[in-house]
Amino acid sequence: MAPDDRADLGRVMPTRPLSVTALPPSETFAGWEEVQALLVEAFAFMEGRIDPPSSLTRMGPEVLAEKAATEIVLIAEDEGRIVACAFLAEEPPALSLSKVAVALSHRGRGLARALIDRAVQEAKMRGLDRFRLQSRVE
């Protein structure tokens, strides 16, 4: 897709690169409702297509906070709004990557790639040399 075609999709291309922040395992982050809304939006197309239903149907903000107590959460923000996320679980010798999501409004900007690049950095910092991507077959 040519860059000019992207404007036709109603997306506003960023004037600056967005950075990805790693939240260490903790329960002090206050944006779990926003993360949950992002995940629901990003995976809405799967509703009714997969059986059993996505685990997101059982993952409210409290469950995400509990998950984050033992995992690393990657977050990208644009002007204070969470627009991308991923969860990383250390499972030696691998780092397990799950719940990778980019807001519909921010797709095509390299955010998924930025999340994966940051995950690679996190794995190297922990001496891990493998990735495990958790995904649905559907």
How would you characterize the overall build of this protein?
Helix 4 links the parallel strand 4 and strand 5. The chain is globular and about 40 Å long. By secondary structure, the protein is an alpha+beta fold. The N terminus is likely disordered. It is built from four helices and five strands.
Short descriptors:
disordered N terminus, 4 helices, 25% strand, 138 residues, globular, five-stranded mixed β-sheet, alpha+beta
Our measurement of the CA-to-CA distance between the termini, rounded to an integer number of angstroms, reads: 25 Å
The main sheet orders its strands as: 1-2-3-4-5
Residue runs with pLDDT of under 50 for 5 or more positions:
1-10
- The SSE order reads HEHHEEEHE
Radius of gyration: 15 Å
Q: Largest beta sheet, briefly?
A: 5 strands, mixed
Strand content: 25-35%
Give me the secondary-structure category. Answer: alpha+beta
Q: Looking at the structure, what is the overall shape?
A: globular
User: What's the tally of helices?
Assistant: 4
Count of β-strands? 5
- The overall average pLDDT, rounded, is 83
Helix content: 25-40%
What are the SSEs and their pairings?
Layout: H1 3-7, E1 20-23, H2 32-42, H3 61-68, E2 72-78, E3 81-91, E4 94-102, H4 111-125, E5 130-133
Parallel strand pairs: 4-5
Antiparallel strand pairs: 1-2, 2-3, 3-4
Helix pairs in contact: 2-3
Would you summarize the structure shown here?
The protein is built from 4 helices and 5 strands, in the order αβααβββαβ. By secondary structure, it is an alpha+beta fold. The chain is globular.
